[in-house]
UniProtKB/TrEMBL annotation:
Keywords: Carbohydrate metabolism, Galactose metabolism, Isomerase, NAD. Pathway: Carbohydrate metabolism; galactose metabolism. Belongs to the NAD(P)-dependent epimerase/dehydratase family. Residues 4-261 form the NAD-dependent epimerase/dehydratase domain. Homodimer. The gene is galE. This is UDP-glucose 4-epimerase. Its cofactor is NAD(+). The keyword Translocase does not apply.
Length: 343
């Protein structure tokens, strides 16, 4: 297991995963259509690792482009499939875009894998598949109940992979990420949303003065301070979980589903307070109404991934907010300023 194809290879989680895989001397082939990223993250991965990757600008919806990648790159051993549209709110407004990109794109990828005899895959799923779970921390065998089109696409793609694993003898690791946060310690790569859909990038932009204040979505939840509690996971820990998943695929066959979380939760107010410490000043916020479809508290049970994947989170909240602030303050326009400088 040496040569790995990374779909969505220029994205937030992929760029951190690329660094960890390159440290372990994997050979990387990246594919991305830049719908939510740019070449600059790939350049910076090469700069940080001191290694080269092979990059293809290609769209999963275009089978010809996809087949071209598999034709050019003989002997791909495994795929890590990150490419997807990922905004819950947008998926409610544009469900067909989400089903088309995430489902049709994945089907094209799986067809290409079948054609070129690639049988190993790690898939980016999400805690969103659990909806509002009955028990927390939530275990992998908890019932799945999505409440939005994005979550449905994740669950459908999980099912397609589980069925394909049985029928075609594929080996599949499905990772259900909780709430990815933070950035690489260098401050050179990080999350680069134009309009942040998640809490921490929003708090970062408020701390940097790009936005006026954080709107806290309700303080009447049944949590210790009334604000929503989530299981935040450092993106470098998450990246490491992919390295462990590739190792798992080397040593075992079949399909596996793992939570990637810490088992510990922080409230919105705790996140804002930790971020204020990181940036050295108060981050303004206001208590607003609950967000539609939101849930109070969710954490992932990390025991199965610890036992079977041999993976446990190493970083804590301080590492997440410090690295997020370093990335935000050193790249106030994300990758865009560098892209303009280079053109
Ligand atoms: P991201 O948007 O930074 O990365 C996804 C990448 O896929 C982007 O670079 C985008 O340009 C690319 N892409 C999208 N559609 C494509 C297509 N049709 N063809 C080629 N490339 C395409 O997002 P991320 O946060 O790094 O998320 C990576 C994966 O993890 C996604 O599957 C997402 O659903 C999943 N996930 C993310 C989170 C989170 O909060 N960030 C949580 C759980 C799961
Ligand atoms: C976290 C907490 C909000 C923004 C989503 C997806 C999930 C996964 C991760 C992809 C909640 C509160 C937020 C704000 C706030 N993504 N909040 N003000 O909803 O747990 O998960 O992202 O797979 O699928 O559903 O993450 O970052 O949006 O919210 O008060 O401006 O912060 O209510 O309690 P969420 P989030």
């Amino acid at each position: 297991m040496k040569k790995i194809l990374i779909t969505g290879g220029a994205g937030y989680i992929a760029s951190h995963t690329n660094i960890e895989l390159l440290k372990d001397n994997y050979e990387l082939v990246l594919l991305d259509n830049f719908s939510n990223s740019s070449m600059e993250s790939v350049n910076r991965v090469e700069e940080l690792s001191g290694k080269k990757v092979r990059f293809y600008q290609a769209d999963l919806l275009n089978s010809d482009q996809l087949n071209h990648v598999f034709e050019q790159e003989k002997n791909i051993d495994a795929v890590i499939h990150f490419a997807a549209l990922k905004s819950v709110g947008e998926s409610v407004e544009k469900p067909l875009d989400y089903y088309e990109n995430n489902i049709s794109g994945s089907l094209n990828l799986y067809r290409a894998m079948q054609k070129y005899q690639v049988k190993n895959i790690v898939f980016s799923s999400s805690a969103t598949v659990y909806g509002d779970p009955d028990e927390i921390p939530v275990k992998e065998d908890a019932p799945t109940r999505c409440t939005n089109p994005y979550g449905h696409t994740k669950l459908m793609m999980e099912q397609i992979l589980l069925d394909s694993a049985k029928a075609y003898d594929w080996n599949v690791v499905i990772l259900r990420y909780f709430n990815p946060a933070g950035a690489h310690e260098s401050g050179r790569i990080g999350e680069d949303p134009e309009y942040p859909a998640n809490l921490l990038p929003f708090v970062s932009q408020v701390a940097a003065g790009v936005r006026e204040k954080v709107m806290v979505f309700g303080n009447d939840w049944e949590t210790h301070d009334g604000t929503g509690v989530r299981d935040y996971i450092h993106v470098v820990d998450l990246a490491q979980a992919h390295v462990k998943s590739i190792e798992k695929l080397k040593n075992s066959s079949g399909s596996f589903i793992y939570n990637i979380g810490t088992g510990r939760g922080y409230s919105v107010l705790e996140m804002i307070s930790a971020f204020s410490q990181a940036c050295g000043h108060d981050v303004p916020y206001e208590i607003g109404p609950r967000r539609e479809g939101d849930i109070g508290e969710v954490m992932g049970d990390p025991q199965k991934s610890a036992q079977e994947l041999k993976w446990t989170a190493q970083y804590g909240l301080k590492d997440m907010v410090d690295s997020a602030w370093k990335w935000q303050s050193e790249n106030p326009q994300g990758y865009r300023s560098s892209t303009q400088e280079n053109t």
